[in-house]
Write a sequence for this structure.
């Protein structure tokens, strides 16, 4: 997979992209990931990419010219018109695990990191997907873009150990519920004991316990996840 991240602050990604799973995925050839400085496509010596919005209003708006040229350059270097061009914006559709799985099947992702007061609306012509991480506003699209990269790359075959089960049996996995609580050694810590069912070795009972715990946790923290496709999930 190829991932291009277009931003006016490429340095924000350097440490993030050079550590942990993402770094290993790049070294293993699972991904080719680069940051693209939007200012490299500016048309003046000051590398200007923003201007005052028409009809007034606070802040500065990002101009369309550099965005079009940057995206066209990324497309030419990658999958062409088959690339998924993703804009992170509070006005986008909620970003979910299902969308991450969809992106993980793409050959080429181009992520647009808006900044300042936003982006000229004409740039939407370039965009295949507009997504939002939640009902809040950030100063720029770099943090959402980093989250999308991480959520997608970990789903690529061979990136995580444990195969497909590593991502199926977690929150928002195949069952759509939050993941059940997990424990490790010691069996007792400051009076808090690991549930007996987890140390007794009965796999059927463990599976039933995890299913019930996942349902109860989801009921408390994310009841909206229990309604999927018009049918109500059950704890079994």
């Amino acid at each position: 997979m190829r991932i291009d991240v277009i931003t006016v602050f490429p340095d924000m990604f350097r440490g993030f992209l050079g550590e942990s799973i993402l770094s290993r995925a790049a070294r293993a050839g699972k991904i080719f990931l680069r940051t693209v400085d939007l200012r490299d496509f500016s048309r003046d010596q000051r590398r200007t990419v923003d201007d005052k919005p028409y009809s007034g209003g606070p802040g500065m708006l990002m101009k369309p010219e550099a965005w079009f040229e940057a995206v066209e350059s990324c497309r030419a270097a990658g999958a062409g018109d088959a690339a998924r061009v993703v804009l992170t914006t509070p006005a986008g559709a909620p970003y979910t695990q299902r969308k991450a799985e969809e992106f993980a099947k793409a050959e080429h992702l181009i992520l647009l990191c808006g900044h300042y007061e936003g982006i000229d609306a004409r740039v939407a012509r370039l965009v295949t997907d507009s997504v939002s991480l939640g009902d809040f506003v950030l100063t720029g699209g770099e943090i959402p873009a980093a989250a999308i990269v991480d959520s997608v790359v970990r789903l690529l075959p061979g990136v995580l150990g444990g195969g497909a089960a590593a991502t199926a049996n977690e929150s928002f996995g195949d069952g759509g519920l939050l993941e059940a609580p997990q424990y490790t050694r010691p069996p007792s810590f400051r009076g808090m004991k690991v549930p007996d069912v987890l140390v007794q070795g009965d796999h059927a009972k463990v599976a039933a316990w995890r299913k019930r715990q996942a349902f109860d946790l989801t009921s408390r923290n994310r009841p909206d996840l229990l309604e999927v496709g018009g049918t109500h999930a059950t704890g079994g």
Helices lie at 14-17, 20-27, 64-77, 97-104, 142-153, 165-168, 196-199, 203-221. The mean pLDDT is 90. Residues 141 and 215 are 33 Å apart (CA to CA). The longest helix spans residues 203-221.
